[in-house]
């Protein structure tokens, strides 16, 4: 699967960073999932290859505006672009009347159904080969992260077993390869018995705001990628004596290291962190603090940057975006 960051700033946008929005793209390269939808997310989508017609689901972590103010506009644009497929949205229960009222008072008629699910009672959802579950986080308001498990989208036939059981090559193998059961010599053969994974299943954890990374311990096992906010450095938190319900880069990095997560992507940076290394505080401070505690692949997310998880489980920057 791939990631594209549509916004990596905390609270307010900056000249180089929009507010929160993260796209997770299926291995097929078409269907995608949106985690959070800050203001102007739809503008960011237009700067990528993503299509609102291929959006499979939207997942809002909590009620703060930098994570949800862009949702009504994105839905209206999806409707105006001709989308007709129903759209599942998982969001805090308090946001459902706001979304519906925003669309109603603006006379935004949608040609597709909205299926809204409260994150507080969400018990999981599956779309094709992608399973989505929630994990409760700690913030100033109720907040959730989302766990995406993708099964191998391209399983291979177990040729040894097929030959051993005398199933002849040809159309019968083709049926099994497409996941359909077959009948041969008076027996029924189920596809799942003759398909083996081409690569291990992939797990991405994409979090909202969270001051306690250890809450992810139960879902961290087997995770390939953790996307987590690092709004401040520990040095800044210690200086201000307040973290406002957010994590430091050091805290997230220590957790990811202890949990054995191989790829860590930090995002949701305070607007006070400058890109210019000659100014302080600088975004490089976040990088250096995290790198002191984490030995895996470490990334500081950039707006519109795309990242690809290869079959060996290593996250890589996609050049040329």
| Poorly predicted regions | none
Query: Could you state the CATH homologous superfamily of the largest domain?
Result: Ribonuclease Z/Hydroxyacylglutathione hydrolase-like
In whole angstroms, the N-to-C terminal distance is 15 Å
Range of helix content: 10-25%
- H and E string: EEEEHEHEHEEEEEHHEEEEHEHHEEHEEE
The count of domains is 2
Largest sheet composition: 8 strands, mixed
Q: Measured on Cα atoms, how large is the radius of gyration?
A: 21 Å
**Global geometry:** globular
Mean pLDDT, as a whole number? 93
CATH topology of the largest domain: Metallo-beta-lactamase, Chain A
Class of secondary structure makeup: alpha/beta
Strand content: 25-35%
Q: Give the number of helices.
A: 9
**Widest sheet: strand ordering:** 7-6-5-4-3-1-20-21
How does this model look, in words?
By secondary structure, the protein is α/β, with parallel strands linked by helices. The protein has two domains: 2-154 and 197-317, Ribonuclease Z/Hydroxyacylglutathione hydrolase-like (Metallo-beta-lactamase, Chain A), CATH 3.60.15.10; 156-195, no CATH class. The chain is 22% helix and 27% strand. The protein contains nine helices and 21 strands. The protein has helices spanning 41-46, 71-80, 95-105, 159-164, 171-177, 217-220, 234-240, 249-259, 283-291; strands spanning 2-7, 9-10, 21-25, 32-35, 55-59, 87-91, 114-118, 125-127, 130-136, 144-150, 156-157, 182-184, 187-189, 195-196, 202-206, 225-229, 263-267, 269-270, 297-300, 306-309, 315-317. The strands form five sheets. An eight-stranded mixed beta sheet has the order 7-6-5-4-3-1-20-21. Strands 8-9-10-15-16-17-19 form a seven-stranded mixed beta sheet, with helices on one face. Strands 2-18 form a two-stranded parallel ribbon. Strand 3 and strand 4 form a beta hairpin. Helix 8 packs parallel to helix 9 (283-291). It is globular, with a radius of gyration of 21 Å. The two termini are 15 Å apart.
């Amino acid at each position: 699967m791939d990631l594209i960051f549509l916004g990596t700033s905390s609270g307010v946008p900056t000249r180089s960073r929009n507010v929160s929005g993260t796209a997770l793209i299926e291995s097929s390269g078409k269907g995608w999932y949106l985690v959070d939808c800050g203001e102007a997310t739809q503008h960011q989508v237009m700067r990528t290859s993503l299509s609102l017609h291929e959006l499979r689901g939207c997942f809002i972590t909590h009620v703060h505006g930098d994570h949800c103010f862009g949702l009504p506009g994105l839905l209206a644009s999806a409707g105006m672009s001709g989308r007709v497929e129903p759209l599942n949205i998982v969001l805090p229960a308090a946001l459902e009347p706001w979304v519906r009222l925003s669309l109603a008072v603006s006379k935004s008629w949608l040609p597709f159904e909205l299926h809204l699910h409260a994150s507080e009672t969400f018990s999981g959802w599956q779309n094709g080969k992608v399973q989505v579950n929630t994990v409760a986080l700690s913030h100033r308001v109720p907040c959730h992260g989302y766990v995406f498990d993708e099964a191998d989208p391209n399983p291979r036939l177990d040729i040894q077993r097929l030959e051993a059981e005398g199933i002849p090559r040809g159309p019968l193998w083709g049926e099994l390869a497409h996941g359909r059961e077959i009948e041969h010599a008076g027996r029924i053969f189920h596809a799942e018995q003759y398909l083996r994974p081409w690569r291990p299943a992939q797990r991405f954890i994409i979090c909202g705001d969270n001051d306690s990374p250890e809450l992810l311990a139960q879902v961290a096992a087997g995770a390939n990628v953790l996307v987590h906010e690092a709004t401040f450095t520990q040095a800044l938190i210690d200086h201000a004596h307040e973290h406002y319900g957010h994590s430091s880069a050091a805290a997230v990095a220590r957790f990811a290291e202890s949990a054995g997560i191989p790829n860590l992507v930090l995002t949701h940076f305070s607007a006070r962190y400058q890109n210019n290394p000659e100014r302080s505080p600088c975004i490089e401070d976040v990088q250096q603090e995290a790198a002191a505690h984490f030995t895996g692949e470490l990334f500081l997310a950039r707006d519109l940057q795309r990242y690809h998880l290869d079959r060996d489980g290593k996250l890589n920057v996609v050049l040329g975006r």
